[in-house]
Structures are given as structure tokens and as C-alpha cells.
Automatic annotation (TrEMBL), chain A:
Protein name: HYCCIN
The species this protein was found in: Salix purpurea
Keywords: Cell membrane, Cytoplasm, Membrane
Regions that span the bilayer: none
PANTHER family: HYCCIN, HYCCIN RELATED
GO biological process: phosphatidylinositol phosphate biosynthetic process; protein localization to plasma membrane
UniProtKB/TrEMBL annotation, chain B:
Domain of life (superkingdom): Eukaryota
SUPFAM superfamilies from the UniProt entry: TPR-like
Protein name: PROTEIN NPG1
Species for this entry: Salix purpurea (Purple osier willow)
Renumbered ranges of TPR repeats: 589-622
Coiled-coil positions: none
InterPro entries linked: NPG1-like (IPR043376), TPR-like_helical_dom_sf (IPR011990), TPR_rpt (IPR019734)
Pfam families documented for this protein: TPR_16
Keywords: TPR repeat
Lineage per the UniProt record: Eukaryota, Viridiplantae, Streptophyta, Embryophyta, Tracheophyta
Length: 368, 701
């Protein structure tokens, strides 16, 4: 199954890249309409695909009935946001043998993602936290994982083709040269000098037909990069799943920052022995290629524009666990990233920093 | 926000009598008007204001709206504002301003007229602004954003060339600034992220005459939004791109640029210090691995902004991230000085870790680790295992350069004890398995080492190359070459081709050890092809930022080949390979050593000797050279024997498991007639013969 994935991806290059374009266009459509209006179905073939996907899902789940098809609502949108479906899919995924190559649900994920239907791909990405979380935690347990691997490879291959394998780089600005936001006495800089501060935030991608164990973290990391790029479309439940797995991956109870001792309100209350055993099970190696997308996603959950109490709570718990883990690894890079996230999330909750400057001064004397 | 508003209004109700309105030099208590408003009688309230203060309809409405807004009756305020025909009012304002705009000099003449029309404008714009605020409080965010946008559109229509500094009424300017700040916030709250992006850019790229605080708040909010919204902003419009100035390509770049500008504004004294700016910048720059840029920013911050120890410690983290461990350690030494913060656990652990990687610093590291252990208490108790582990690593490293055998074995057993203790505290940390495996391997306790190496591979799911390499080396030390080759082949299956270099090199060496030169040459040939392919497909980018320890190292290929030919005594081929290796690394003890071997093989003993001595000048602790110098000297007359003996003892001090050193030392003892000593040495050599790995264990790290 995993062999198939790479081959079909490589031969289908042009079609997939086209579908990528349309996907970004639709992304815009959805963000503007927020969550109240569902986007128009782009074409009949896509709605056909969607119906096909729902039909095959209904044979796996008990709550999805084909009667959905007659509903007025956009079915792909329904799949993405329906809590019953997601809870049932999640619990099926969490069964001990769910990652096997012949697992129906994994096959459904694989086929659905391969349909190249942006809306349906979002549905697959919605469950990426659970898939990746279980997958990485189960590697050391020697459980069957071919099904999970096929899904992850399909997502990796999609990202590889849409990026044409290219690295993502960032040009760190140099303030001694003028920019659109500031002036400087020095003349504009030559293009040659511009490469000096070039930083690679995601190295170039090679096609992978199977998951080689040394590339495992990278493959999952790239899948998470794709997840991050669509994160504004993901339901809160999916992000909370992700935060929960961060805690499992870290293998650590969350500990407070050293520098503020007075703040105890965040301490985990449920730190019982039962949880401890769960945590020691799923601990994984956290190289930067994995930790970087993880940090970006957590950054969005903690500091992004949608302020959801539950999400922020579980994201800061995840962040504390990862910070604690970075101390255990004495990994300076991870310490810097997770510590600044933790400090920022604290500052964001401080009422002192939440003064509304757009409010007019309230005085008793109103003058014209 | 709504909550605080309502509590405010309760407060106001308690002190209602004190509220009053001023207009046209007349003052009026509002209690009467408010009573009328409470009855829902807007018209009457309006007319009493108009009469009392001699106002026109719009002015009265605007005042009423503001009054209702302040009282917290946003719905009523909205109702009042709806009564004003705002588009018409804006229309009326336009010509009067655009005509006067060019005549900046004739200010005194048109001053009063200006004041009047600016006043009217300010009134209208404030009314629209308050309408937007009211809508926001009612949760009608989209409508609010549209109203707020109308304020800005109106301002742009009224002031074609941007807002002039001198001529503007303060109140008008305040309203404009607030509207500029509010608009992106509204779009954000409404979930319209793309509109929010363009509103932010409009705020920052047009001329609004914003104050420093105002502008900085918007810049910070935009940077945060760019970093964390998860929506790609796309490049700024072409109109904003001034020729030759830097235009950020995507979100992260734009956010970093804005944050850097904010830090600079602080240096220049334009804004007060906001610690969150630095944290945002820290996060952004560590995401792209540019912590050296962050270090530069931190160094530029004036003293007194934050505690120097915090600065040193954060700088140490930055430098250590980019591999500048020396600089990091120097900073940590300062911050851990007894007059600073000697008990900071993170700093102690980082210092110990840096020291554990260098045998000459290991003793210092032991000290840090011990301090860390005694400080890992209370809420930091969970770090005790880490501190003990660092103690073990530092002791193990210290043992490698210890001057006496006694000291060495003491340190080694201490290292083992610590790592075992750490293991019981950090059960789920696979790194410890690897470190124990390494330690046992270096002590040639190969069976135990083998067990740990296997457990490490299981625990990490084979995801780390160093586990495979350790296992193969241990097997090779046990002379189980074919099994080692199976391990290497398995590892090759789990590796993408660019990371296969070190494995293939091991494989070639395994073939060499098994006296399969053709297989070895085949492997080296494949490695060279890989080097070529790597050069082609990655270009300069790869070599600058990514190559690290992962890539195929061309130098090592040529050197390995030279070594292989030297075993076969193919001196000509060896010379060619050595020349290639030398081109890549001209001053390497290893190359000079191999060159010496070649010269010796060709019978040029004097030249060989000088090559060895040069190699020792490059690296004074390069053991193979010491051994061969000792061997050469032992063949000379008896005057040279004491020198040979001392240089071999020296070699054994650095590497007590060197079989050849023991062997040549035995020969010297025999020549000198100390037969018993000679026998001991030969015995040591013969015992060690079984345990030599094909490559030094420390090459894995």
C-alpha cells in the first residue's frame, strides 16, 4: 500500500499541483465566510467524490448515514466539523491495531486524501494529530503501523509535489538597510548580499516510497507543516487532540517556568499515577525537524486570533510538558522556543497587557 | 470587555449628577437629558441639547450618541447615530479641505475657517467611530468593521496627501489613530483574516500621523498576527514597495522585521520597554534557527533593561544552539559565579553538558553537575536524574585523559554508577541506554555494551543513526564482521541516501577488515558517486546550512581508499588517493600519518619520521603517530630507546587500549632486557587484539 502511494504521487504531478492552486483559492473563500456559510461546491465531480467518501465512511462508522447526502449542508464541511463523527473516528483510531495495513479506516483516509479534493483533504488533516500522535508513540511498541504510514506518506508526497521538493527559506532582515516599514540612511542593498542571513526553515524534500526509520520524524514533521498551513480551517477539537499528544510525546509532566514562582494556577490537577504510566509509554525522540512544526502549531493555539479557553488551557499544558522535556534533554534550541512560548502565553493572560487602547477616554465632562 | 463596560456604567450611575456637557462656551448638566433618554425620547433629548447649547442637529446627535455610549447604552447610542446622515456629512467636508490643503503657508488667514471645518469633521468621524465601537460591543463585528473602515476612507478622501502634522485638531487625530488601530482588530475578531492583514498593512504603510505608542502597538499586533494566525499574508501591494527597499516575502520575515523595528524603537527611546516583544522575537528567530541574530539583538540591549544574568543565560542558550559552545560556556561561567546566580539549574545543566563534550573541560563539568544535583530540589526535583546523568558523562569523559590508571578506573566506575543511578530516575530516556552502551564499549565490556546498543535501537525504533553505528562497531570489535555487515545493511535500508555516508564508510572498512578489498573498493566507488550526486543536487545552499555531520564526506572517502591501498601495498594508487584527501584537508594529522605510512612502506624511513613529527605538531595527542614514531625509534640504536619508551607510554596514557602501543613497548622492554615487563606488555597486546573496533567508538559522536 505504501509502495503504491509514492508511485501514484510521482506520476500524477501535474494534476496534484493544479488541485493545490484551487485549494488555496477555496481556503480564502472559507476564511471570509467564517463558519456560518458553507462554501459552494466547486464542481459536480468534486461533490461526487465527496459523496463517495461519505458512502464508504458510512460503512465503517455507525453514526454516518448516507441520508447526509440529501442534506442541504455541504457534506465535506459537515465531515470536518461534526463532533459525533470526529469522536467516533478518533476512538476507532485509538484501538490497539488500528494502524495495520488492512485497516478500513486507514484505507479510507488514504483514498480520501488521494482524491485530491481540497475539502476532503482537510477532513484527513483534521485527524492528522491523532494519526501522527499514535503512530510515533507506537513505533517502539512494535505494533502494526503500515496503515498509518500509508496515510502519512500520502500527505508527505502531496507536500513534496506542491513544493516541488524545494526548501522553505527565510531571509532574516537587516535593519541597516531600508525596508517598507522603516527608513535607513544606507542605500538599498544588492541582491548578492541578501543571502547572508538566509535561514532554512524546512529543508528540501526527497520523495519517499516507504518510511525509513531515520526519516520518520521528518515525514511526520512535513505532514505537520501542511497541517499548520491549514490550521485556521481546523476545528478546535483537532487542535486539542494535537496538544494532548504533545504531552504524551514529551513524556514529562508539565512544570512551571523557573522564573515565576508565584503562579501556580496552571498546575495540573490530574497528575495521578494512572496518567504517569500513559505518559511514559508514548515518549518519543523530539528532533528539531519535529519540534519546529510542533512549536508553530502550539504558537497558533496559544497566541492565534481565535481565543478558545479550552484550547489555550490544553496548549499551555502541552507547552509546559515540552519545556520540561527540553530541560531534560538540555536542548538549548528547544528551551529557547518553548520557554518563550510559555512566557508569552502567561503575558497574554495578564490583564495588565490587555488594555483596550481603542476605547475612548471616559470623562464626566463631554465637550463638543 | 462587555463586562468591564457594564461595571463602568454602574459606577457612572452612582455619580450621575457630576456629568456635564460643554459646547460653544456653555456648560450644561446632563441629568435632565439623560432622564429623557431613559424614557426613550431621543427627539426631546436632542432638542433640549440644541436649545441649551445652541447646536445644530448633527452636533446634538453626536453629543447624545457619545453620552449614551459613555453610559454603556450601546444599543441606544447606535440608535442615535443611525439618525445622522453620515455619508452626506462626509461629502460636505471634502471640498473645504482639499481646497485649503496646498496653502500651508497662509495658515493664519484661513485658520478660523480651518478650525470650524476640522471641528465638524472631527465630530462626524467620532460619531462613526463610536458607532463602530457600539457595533463591536454588540458583537456585530462585520458591521463594526465596515463602519470603522468608513472612518478611514473618509479621512483619506478629506486629506489627500496624508494628515499634516501641524494643522490637525487633536481630537480628530485621536479618532483617526483609534480607528486605524481598531479596524484590523475588528476584522480579526470577525474571523476575516485576509481583511485583517490588509487593514494592518494599510495602517502601517499609509500616512496617518500615528503616535509612537499607537504605531508600535499596531506593529506588535500585526507581528503576532503574522506569526500565529496560520494564514499566509502574501506580499504587500506593489504601491507600498519603495524602490530598493527590503520587502518581506512571507509571514515570518515580515514579523521578524516588525519586531526588530520595535526593538530598535526602544533603543531610540521612542517607546517604553515591552518584554513580550523580545519573547516574540526569540520565538520567531529560534523557529528559523537564527539564534546568532537573536544573540546580536540581545547584546545590543542597554544595561538595566533586564537582569544581566538573564541576558548571559539567554545568550548562552543562543550560542549553544548554533554550536558556539565556547562562547556559551564563557557566559555561563560569568552567570554561575558565586556573586551572581550560582544555583541556576538550567545554566548549571547546560554548562555541564557543554563540558561533557570536551575531555579537557570534563573536570569543570563534574563540578557543575554536582552543584546541579544539590540544587535539584523541590519543584526542580524532576531534573535530578538529568544532573546525575551529566555527572556520569563528565566523569566518563574526564577518565579519558586521566594521568594515572588508578584515577582512570575510579572515574570510570563513578561514571557507570552515575549513569545507572540516572537510569533509575529517567527510565524512559533512551539517550541513557546509548551513553551506557558507549561507556561499556570504551571499557571493552563488549557484551554488556552490545545489550545496551540493542535496547537503544529498540527504544528509538531505529530512528537514530548513532545506534546502528554503535552496534556495528561493537560487533566489529568482537570480530563478528559478517553480523556487523548485516547491521549496516539493515541501517542502510532505514536511511535516505544522503545520510548513508558514515554507514557506507563503515561497510567499506568492514570489507577491508575481512580482507575483501574488491568489495571495499566497490563501496568506496559508490560513495564517490554519491559525493558527485550530492554536489549536483544541493549546490551551495546545502553546503552552507545543511551539511552538518550528515552528508557524505569526500575527504573521508579518499582517506579510506588510501588506507585500503596501503594495506594492499599499492603505493601508487595510495599516493593518488592521498593527494585528493590532502587537497580537501591540507593540515590534518590523519593525512600526514597516512603519508608517513606510505613513505615507510616505500622504505623512506627518514621522510616517514618527519611526516609523523609534523602530524604530531598538528595534533599533539594523535596516538597512531606516537606509536609509529616509537616503533621507528625502537629499531634504531639503543640511545633512542628511552625516547621511544616515553613516547609509547604517552600514547598509552591517551589510549590505554591501543594494542600496537603495548606491542612496541614490549619489544623495547625485550631489547632492553626487561623480559618480565616485555611479557606483560605482550600479554596486554594479545588480550586487546580481540577487542579493537574498526573505527574508534568516539567517532560516532
Amino acid at each position: 500500500m505504501s509502495e503504491d502511494s509514492s508511485i501514484s504521487e510521482e506520476t500524477n504531478t501535474p494534476t496534484t499541483s493544479v488541485s493545490q492552486d484551487t485549494s488555496t483559492a477555496e481556503t480564502t473563500a472559507i476564511t471570509t465566510s467564517a463558519f456560518n456559510i458553507h462554501p459552494e461546491t466547486p464542481s459536480s465531480s468534486s461533490s461526487f467524490n465527496t459523496h463517495l467518501a461519505i458512502q464508504s465512511l458510512s460503512s465503517i462508522l455507525t453514526t454516518v448515514s448516507p441520508s447526509l447526502l440529501s442534506q442541504d449542508q455541504d457534506p465535506a464541511f459537515y465531515l470536518l466539523h461534526n463532533p459525533d463523527i470526529s469522536s467516533q473516528v478518533s476512538s476507532l483510531l485509538r484501538l490497539p491495531d488500528s494502524g495495520a495495513g488492512d485497516n478500513n479506516l486507514c484505507r479510507w483516509f488514504y483514498d480520501t486524501f488521494q482524491s485530491s479534493e481540497p475539502q476532503l483533504q482537510l477532513v484527513v488533516l483534521r485527524f492528522l494529530p491523532v494519526i501522527a500522535g499514535l503512530y510515533l508513540s507506537r513505533v517502539a511498541l512494535k505494533k502494526p503501523l503500515a496503515g498509518f504510514e500509508a496515510v502519512l506518506l500520502a500527505i508527505y508526497a502531496h507536500e513534496t509535489t506542491s513544493r516541488a521538493g524545494q526548501a522553505v527559506t527565510v531571509n532574516v532582515p537587516d535593519l541597516s538597510y531600508p525596508s517598507i516599514y522603516h527608513e535607513s540612511r544606507r542605500p538599498a542593498k544588492d541582491n548578492d548580499a541578501a543571502d547572508l542571513n538566509l535561514a532554512v526553515i524546512s529543508p528540501s524534500l526527497e520523495p519517499h516510497g516507504t518510511v525509513r526509520s531515520t526519516r520518520r520524524a521528518r515525514i511526520v514533521g512535513v505532514a505537520l507543516e501542511l497541517y499548520y498551513s491549514k490550521i485556521s480551517l481546523m476545528p478546535v477539537g483537532s487542535k486539542i487532540d494535537f496538544c494532548e499528544f504533545c504531552k504524551v510525546w514529551s513524556g514529562q509532566e508539565g512544570h512551571e517556568l523557573q522564573d515565576d514562582e508565584d503562579n501556580v494556577e496552571f498546575q495540573d490537577n490530574q497528575g495521578n499515577a494512572d496518567k504517569e504510566s500513559v505518559i511514559t509509554e508514548g515518549r518519543i525522540a523530539l528532533p528539531w525537524e519535529l519540534l519546529q512544526p510542533v512549536s508553530r502549531i502550539l504558537g497558533h493555539c496559544l497566541l492565534g486570533p481565535t481565543r478558545d479557553e479550552e484550547l489555550i488551557g490544553s496548549a499551555s499544558a502541552a507547552c509546559r510538558s515540552l519545556y520540561s522535556r527540553s530541560l531534560h534533554d538540555i536542548n538549548p534550541h528547544a528551551i529557547l522556543a518553548t520557554r518563550s512560548l510559555l512566557r508569552l502565553s502567561k503575558m497574554a493572560l495578564d490583564p495588565k497587557n490587555n488594555v483596550d487602547h481603542t476605547e475612548i477616554p471616559m470623562s464626566d465632562v463631554i465637550s463638543l | 470587555m462587555l463586562g468591564s463596560q457594564s461595571s463602568d456604567s454602574i459606577e457612572y450611575e452612582d455619580q450621575t449628577p457630576s456629568r456635564e456637557v460643554w459646547a460653544n462656551g456653555v456648560c450644561m448638566k446632563t441629568s435632565e437629558v439623560e432622564a429623557k433618554l431613559d424614557e426613550g425620547n431621543i427627539q426631546e433629548a436632542e432638542s433640549s441639547l440644541r436649545e441649551g447649547l445652541s447646536l445644530n442637529f448633527e452636533e446634538a446627535r453626536a453629543l447624545l450618541g457619545r453620552l449614551e455610549y459613555q453610559r454603556g447604552n450601546v444599543e441606544a447610542a447606535l440608535h442615535v447615530f443611525d439618525g445622522i446622515d453620515l455619508p452626506a456629512a462626509i461629502q460636505r467636508l471634502q471640498p473645504s479641505f482639499s481646497e485649503k490643503q496646498p496653502s500651508r503657508k497662509g495658515r493664519s488667514r484661513g485658520d478660523s475657517q480651518h478650525a470650524v471645518s476640522q471641528h465638524a469633521a472631527s465630530l462626524v468621524l467620532e460619531a462613526i467611530y463610536l458607532k463602530a465601537k457600539s457595533l463591536q460591543k454588540l458583537g456585530r463585528l462585520n458591521d463594526a468593521a465596515h463602519e470603522c473602515k468608513r472612518v478611514l476612507d473618509a479621512v483619506e478622501k478629506i486629506f489627500h496627501q496624508g494628515i499634516p502634522d501641524v494643522q490637525v485638531d487633536n481630537r480628530l487625530q485621536d479618532t483617526v489613530c483609534q480607528a486605524v488601530e481598531l479596524l484590523p482588530e475588528l476584522w480579526k475578531q470577525a474571523g476575516c483574516y485576509h481583511e485583517a492583514m490588509s487593514a494592518y498593512r494599510r495602517a502601517l504603510l499609509s500616512q496617518w500621523n500615528l503616535g509612537d505608542d499607537n504605531c508600535s502597538r499596531i506593529q506588535k499586533a500585526f507581528a503576532v498576527f503574522l506569526m500565529h494566525s496560520g494564514v499566509e499574508a502574501g506580499p504587500p501591494s506593489l504601491a507600498a514597495q519603495v524602490d530598493g527597499s527590503y520587502v518581506p516575502k512571507h509571514n515570518l520575515e515580515e514579523a521578524i522585521l516588525l519586531l526588530m523595528i520595535l526593538v530598535r524603537k526602544f533603543y531610540l527611546g521612542k517607546i517604553v520597554w515591552d518584554p513580550s516583544i523580545l519573547e516574540h522575537l526569540t520565538f520567531a528567530l529560534s523557529l528559523c534557527g537564527q539564534t546568532s541574530v537573536l544573540a546580536k539583538e540581545l547584546e545590543e540591549i542597554m544595561p538595566g533593561v533586564f537582569h544581566r544574568v538573564d541576558r548571559w543565560n539567554t545568550l548562552a542558550l543562543c550560542y549553544s544552539t548554533v554550536g558556539q559552545n565556547k562562547a556559551a560556556l564563557n557566559l555561563l561561567r560569568k552567570s554561575l559565579h558565586k556573586h551572581e546566580q550560582p544555583d541556576d539549574l538550567t545554566a548549571l545543566l547546560l554548562a555541564a553538558k557543554i563540558c561533557s563534550e570536551d575531555s579537557h573541560l570534563a573536570a569543570e563539568g563534574v563540578g557543575y553537575a554536582q552543584r546541579a544535583i544539590s540544587n535539584a530540589q523541590g519543584r526542580n526535583e524532576h531534573l535530578k536524574g538529568v544532573a546525575i546523568r551529566m555527572l556520569g558523562l563528565c566523569s566518563g569523559k574526564q577518565a579519558t585523559i586521566s594521568p594515572s590508571d588508578f584515577e582512570r578506573s575510579r572515574l570510570q566506575s563513578e561514571a557507570l554508577k552515575s549513569l545507572d543511578a540516572a537510569m533509575s530516575l529517567e527510565k524512559n530516556n533512551p539517550d541513557l541506554l546509548f551513553e551506557l552502551g558507549m561507556l561499556y564499549a570504551e571499557q571493552r565490556n563488549l557484551n554488556t555494551a552490545l545489550r545496551y546498543a540493542k535496547r537503544f535501537i529498540d527504544a528509538t525504533g531505529g530512528s537514530l543513526l548513532k545506534g546502528w553505528r554503535l552496534l556495528a562497531l561493537i560487533l566489529s570489535a568482537q570480530h563478528r564482521f559478517s553480523e556487523a555487515e548485516v547491521v549496516i545493511d539493515a541501517a542502510l535500508d532505514e536511511t535516505a541516501k544522503w545520510e548513508q555516508g558514515p554507514l557506507l564508510r563503515l561497510k567499506a572498512k568492514l570489507k577491508t577488515s575481512q580482507s575483501l578489498p574488491m568489495g571495499a573498493i566497490e563501496t568506496y566507488r559508490y560513495l564517490l558517486a554519491l559525493v558527485q550526486a550530492q554536489r549536483k543536487s544541493f549546490g551551495p545552499l546545502r553546503s552552507v546550512s545543511q551539511v552538518g555531520g550528515d552528508g557524505v564526506n569526500e575527504y573521508e572517502v579518499w582517506h579510506g581508499l588510501a588506507d585500503l591501498y596501503s594495506r594492499l601495498s599499492h603505493w601508487k594508487d595510495m599516493e593518488v588517493c592521498l593527494g585528493k584527501a590532502k587537497e580537501l584537508k591540507p593540515y590534518s594529522a590523519e593525512v600526514l600519518y597516512t603519508e608517513g605510512v606510505m613513505l615507510q612502506g616505500r622504505g623512506q624511513a627518514e621522510e616517514a619520521m618527519s611526516a609523523y613529527i609534523t602530524a604530531l605538531l598538528v595534533d599533539p595527542s594523535f596516538v597512531p603517530c606516537k606509536i609509529l614514531i616509537g616503533a621507528l625509534l625502537s629499531k634504531r640504536d639503543s640511545n633512542a630507546l628511552p625516547v621511544a619508551r616515553s613516547i609509547l607510554s604517552d600514547a598509552l596514557k591517551i589510549e590505554p587500549t591501543s594494542r600496537m602501543a603495548w606491542y612496541y613497548l614490549g619489544i623495547i622492554h625485550r631489547v632492553d632486557g626487561r623480559i618480565a615487563d616485555a611479557a606483560d606488555c605482550f600479554q596486554a597486546a594479545s588480550m586487546l587484539e580481540e577487542f579493537d573496533p574498526i573505527e574508534n567508538f568516539s567517532s560516532i559522536l
